[in-house]
Amino acid sequence: MSELRELYQEIILDHNKNPRNFGMLEKSNAHAQGHNPLCGDQIEIYANVRNGRIEELKFRALGCAISTASGSLMTECVVGKTVAEADELFESFHHLVTEGEIPEVHEEEMEGLYALAGVKDFPIRVKCATLAWHTLRAALHDSETRISTE
Hints:
single chain; Sufe protein. Chain: A; four-stranded mixed sheet; 43% helix
């Protein structure tokens, strides 16, 4: 196994065992729930958005290592960003896990997310990796519908 692949596996395992921004916000003004029925992943996103900017972001997850690690990495990537910037990052992340590359414009700010690029080789795992992102998008755009990957 290549050193880079081993590093990426370590990052995923670390974010699964010690997820960043894990928990719930007592008072949040954006919230959504997501579910991946295929593998049973469940996630809740809590955010505080002020003046169009994500000031606080937490998540709770019950699921596989990919799903939890993706939620953890996502929170680190989007806190401080505007809603529009988070939408652009979602598109770039989706491109990463389906095509294996990030558009140059987001390369630097999404560096940590490269750990999930290998998901593209396992299409069934793409839903695990993108669940947190779809749920974040729903929370930021006031969707009352529970998000499902199906």
